[in-house]
Amino acid sequence: MATERTLSIIKPDATRRNLTGKINAKFEDAGLRIVAQKRIQLTKAQAGEFYKVHAERPFYDELCEFMASAPVVVQVLEGEGAIAKNREVMGATNPADAAEGTVRADFAESVGENSVHGSDAPDTAADEISFFFSGLELVG
Ligand code: CMP
């Protein structure tokens, strides 16, 4: 399997509860390398732009409000099959369905406030990484 990069976001519910290190440990234990990382405060408009594919969903406004409600940690994770591996480590979107030991099973508060985001495919990973990081920030 090829080495890939994927975009990960540690969301406001998790940064508020000081869980960044515990979540990063799960990524690293699974063999994912954090090759870029920064803690930022999104505006609601920036969150809306990032999540624009969900603009027609009923939860879109709530999602954008939430993502702008506290700092987030945006990161690039690298590894063999990193996109699928990260989704495995995160667990299902709804924590009620997330497998034991996953980030969402251990930390998520609800389907909306679910602690982490991860890219779902190679094309979205490339777009999402370039949304937050310049090439100069990706040092490997
Ligand atoms: P994420 O993987 O970041 O992608 C889109 C996000 O929308 C998702 O995680 C959830 O945080 C949010 N989301 C998905 N379904 C719902 C829902 N039914 N209610 C509120 N938020 C949701």
UniProtKB/TrEMBL annotation:
Catalytic activity: a ribonucleoside 5'-diphosphate + ATP = a ribonucleoside 5'-triphosphate + ADP; a 2'-deoxyribonucleoside 5'-diphosphate + ATP = a 2'-deoxyribonucleoside 5'-triphosphate + ADP
UniProt key word Phosphoprotein: yes
Subcellular location: Cytoplasm
Keywords of the record: ATP-binding, Cytoplasm, Kinase, Magnesium, Metal-binding, Nucleotide metabolism, Nucleotide-binding, Phosphoprotein, Transferase
Pfam families named in the record: NDK
Enzyme class: transferase
GO biological process terms held by the UniProt record: CTP biosynthetic process; GTP biosynthetic process; UTP biosynthetic process
Annotated Gene3D superfamilies: Nucleoside diphosphate kinase-like domain
UniProt: ATP binding residues: K11, F59, R87, T93, R104, N114
SMART domains on file: NDK
GO cellular component, one term: cytoplasm
GO MF annotations, alphabetized: ATP binding; metal ion binding; nucleoside diphosphate kinase activity
Domain Nucleoside diphosphate kinase-like: 3-140
EC number(s) reported in the record: 2.7.4.6
Keyword Manganese annotated: no
Principal location listed in the UniProt entry: cytoplasm
Catalytic residues (positions): H117
Protein origin, superkingdom: Bacteria
Subunit record text: Homotetramer.
Family, per entry: Belongs to the NDK family.
PANTHER family: NUCLEOSIDE DIPHOSPHATE KINASE, NUCLEOSIDE DIPHOSPHATE KINASE DDB_G0292928-RELATED
Role according to the record: Major role in the synthesis of nucleoside triphosphates other than ATP. The ATP gamma phosphate is transferred to the NDP beta phosphate via a ping-pong mechanism, using a phosphorylated active-site intermediate.
Entry-linked NCBIfam families: PRK00668.1 (NF001908)
Name this protein carries in UniProt: Nucleoside diphosphate kinase
Gene: ndk
